[in-house]
Structure formats: C-alpha cells, structure tokens
Batch of 2 targets.
Target 1
Amino acid sequence: MLANQDHLLDSDYIPPDLVKLTVKKISSTPIEMRAAASEALSTMFSAAKEDGITLYAHSGYRSYKTQNTMYYNRLKKNNGKDDGVVAYPGSSDHQTGLGIDVINKAGIGKKFTSAFAKTKEGQWVAEHCWEYGFVIRYQKEKEDITKIIYEPWHLRYVGIQVAEYMRDMNYCLEEFTDEWQRTVYEYEH
Ligand SMILES: [Zn+2]
C-alpha cells in the first residue's frame, strides 16, 4: 500500500487488523499497527536487545482525522503556509498502519533529526531492519522521489521478501510500487 502526495488514502480508510504494540514505547500511550507489522516489530526489538540496542516505538498508526488536525494546526502556526513538515491528510505513511517511528532513549522528548542515523541505535536499524521486513521509508538519496526529507527513524513494514528485494535494488517504496504495478499489468495483458 502506497500513501504519498500523489496517492492519498481515503479519509475513511482504517486498516482492518490494528493491534496495540507490545514493544517498549516512549510513553504509556498505546500505539497501534497492523498485526503482522506489530509482530515483526517485536521480533526486531528483541533481536536489537540481544545486540545491546534498546529501541523505543514513537508513533505508529495515525488516523486521517488526526492527520487533518495536525496539518491544519501546522498551517496555522506557519501563517497558512505548507512547509512540508506535516504530511497532507491522506498522504501519511502512518495511516497505512504499517509505518512506525523508532528512536533511542536520548531522542525521547526531542525533535527528530537525521542525527539519529549516526547513533548506534540508528545504525543498527539501518543495517538490520530489512531482516525483519522493514525498510527505511524516506531515504536521503530518494528525497526527489518521495518528496519527504530523510527520516532515518521512520520504518515501513513491507514483509521480509520485499524488504530484501528493495534493499538489493536500492528502491524506495515509490520505485518498488511502480515496478510491481508494471509487472502485474504486463502479466495481465
Ligand atoms: Zn513517521
């Protein structure tokens, strides 16, 4: 499932199998993801722990309504101008229930920055996330395609096979979706 500025999700789209995450979180506020993503995240957090890396889940599923509120609050704060910080309602990867922001202890309560990529937690995530079916959704060298700044903390569940393929091909989700849809079309015609 692709959500971006060109592929807006419906305002009433709610993933069918949301569950509450059982992993370590930044606060007691529940975080939801789709069942398979939640399970994969638990496996990944445990593997990280074994390597001496403690990860914290920050935010997962975000409803259209919440995106809408966030978006218009940001506009108000920014004199009505869209500065690209908050995703346009329906374009957030978080609405898919497959996106998750993962940070380290030092990052709790602070603004997200690309400096996370240089921390040992950020490095672990970048190196291992695909083994658990996750990809870094917004890569630095793909900013032109995703139209979103580099976010080393935002992981997207795609399943292990696709994550591995995307890694090998150096694809972002937009590129993968393009190729996948083309392949399906060619197969059917
Ligand atoms: Zn995010």
Target 2
Amino acid sequence: MKKVKCLLLISGGLDSMLSLKVLQNNGVSVQPICFNSYFFNCKAAQKACDNLNVPLRVVEIGDIHLEMTKSPKFGYGSAHNPCIDCHLMMLREAKKIMEAEGYDFLATGEVLGQRPMSQNANSLMLIEKELDLVDKIVRPLSLKLLPETEAEKKGLINRDGFYSISGRGRKDQIKLAEELGVKDYPTPAGGCILTEKDYGNNLAELFEFKPEADGSDCVLMRFGRVQLSDDCLMVIGRNQLESEWLENSKKEGDMILIPEDFSGPTVIMRPFRDVEEDVLIDRGIGLILQYSKKVPEEFTVEIR
Ligand code: SF4
C-alpha cells in the first residue's frame, strides 16, 4: 500500500515537534521543511529534527521574504512582522514543492487562537483561500476544531488520532509532550528578529530612506547600535564582539572607523547616496566620540 506522505512546515518549537510526532503516529511519512531568511534561521528546526531523528529540508527564501517585508498586503503585527503575508509566502513555497514532488498534503504546527493576528480561525481560512488550499492544510494539534480536511475526506488520515488544542496556554502541549515522549524542546521564544520593536523600527526607517535595501543591510542592522540618516546607514559596535563583527561585515563602498590609541567603538558607515568622504569621516568620528568614555586630547582613528 502506498505510504501517505506530507510536508510539514517546522519552526523547531514544541508545537511543530508535537505535530511531527502526531502525524507519524497516524502512519504518515513526514518531511519537515524550514525556511531560511535574513530575519530568522533554521537552527531551532535543525535541532528539533536531530532530536526526533528526522532529516530536515532547508529552503532559502531570503530575497523574496525581504521584498515581501517592504510592503506586505496584510500589514504588520505589533512590530515590523508581516506575519500573515509571511505565512502565505511560506505555504506558497511549500505548495509548489508538494505539487512538484507528489506529497499528499501540507501540515503545520499552528494552534488555533495561539497568535491573535495570524492564527485565529479567520486568518487560517483567509490564508487557505488566498493560496487555493482550502481544506488542504492539516494542523494536527487543532484538527478536531477545524473543518474536515481533504486528507480526511480521502481517507488518508482519521481525525480520531488528532487533537483539539487551542489558545495561548501551553499546558495541553506540555502534557502531550510527556505522553509522546518529546523532550528537549525549546521554551517559546521569538526566533524572528522582525518581532523585535527596535529592529523593526530601524528596518522601517531603512526602507523609507533606501527602498532598494538588500539582505546585507538587514543583516548589518542585527547587531550594534543603529543610526540612520537619509543618505547613510551607520552601525556602532557596543562591545568588542560587535566591533569585530562589524569589521568583518564590510562590503564594497563601506567605510570603517576604528579607534587606534584609545578604547572606543568601531563604526561602520554604509552610504546609499553620494556623500563626500570628509563628511562621512566627520560623522563617523563624531559617533566614536559620542560613545567613548574617555578620549585623549589627541587621538588616532584608523579609516578603511
Ligand atoms: S514571526 Fe517572523 S517568521 Fe514568523 S510569521 Fe511572523 S514574520 Fe514570519
């Protein structure tokens, strides 16, 4: 008999780990899939899959995720997180793989009502309609609370083997983890830098000043103290580690300023309009002085 196989979008959190186990316990062959972007990575998913002894498939979506983040059709969450569009994008990519490679259905670890913006019943339905995936996504943890899926109608799975978990609490999932022997799961944490307010504010400003901002700009802003003007992105290291990281992040056209004979931060300047070199140097030195505790009367700054 042909084995039922599905593609499961996995983040590495407890919900996706449980979903994987539940599907396996229902006789489904599960291929977990994770998306890698400038704003999040697959480290947690990799760890979860190692833990569950299932190979993970990683798909790069950095550039399409970045372009979507600049003007999402369904707007942003509480920070600069375009969660509905992001879910749509990931499911769209997964759908392409499902259709091309003959998987029977898609599955996610989503729990009804867990996230107010992207996981209420309306959002889940909206996402399915947008992608022409109505009834085609299996959500093992909330399946019994949702309309019958195509996989059930075709007899590929039976809803008796699934769950009716909903809401933001974690009690049901922790209990289920004990029952299923799922251990070493991460405590709930963002994982996506777009949900961080400061980063989100900086990103919004960057997109305003530099609509053509690329992945390396988004990555550069992940560490250090960020300042933006309408012609330049500036990042100031807050400690030795960040200063070293900034030095290694330099790309063509960037200017790096490093205090030579006193203790102060490294500054990287990335102009995105024509800015005179002297003006950049003055600004960079100004930032070093602003964030240095003790500056001798005479000092040297290395400029690269
Ligand atoms: S938190 Fe980040 S990765 Fe998750 S759906 Fe929202 S934008 Fe996408």
